[in-house]
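Good morning,

Attaching, inline, the backbone tokens for the sequence recovery test we're adding to the shared suite. The designed sequence is right after.
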């Protein structure tokens, strides 16, 4: 979803870089070789980021929030995102 938002200009992404890849091979299938019994796996789908970028990387937010998570910090990312969004609104609204 974040790749779609960025690529089509529907919105800005705020937060951390995604761990999941926006372009990836998927829908794994497998078969077993008859004589050796070795199991072979292969992807049968290539999911490409909407803008056609095939680099194997996650989505980098337009507005990065870089924090370290520690125990007992509930909603820290949401709090940081709200702080950042208020700052962004102030800057872009003039």
């Amino acid at each position: 979803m974040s790749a779609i938002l960025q690529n089509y200009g529907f919105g800005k992404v705020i937060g951390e870089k995604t761990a999941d890849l926006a372009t990836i091979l998927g829908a794994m299938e497998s078969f077993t070789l008859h004589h050796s019994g070795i199991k072979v796996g292969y992807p049968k789908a290539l999911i490409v980021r909407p803008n056609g970028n095939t680099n194997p990387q996650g989505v980098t937010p337009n507005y990065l929030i870089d924090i370290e998570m520690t125990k007992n910090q509930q909603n820290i990312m949401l709090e940081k995102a709200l702080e950042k969004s208020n700052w962004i609104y102030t800057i872009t609204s003039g």
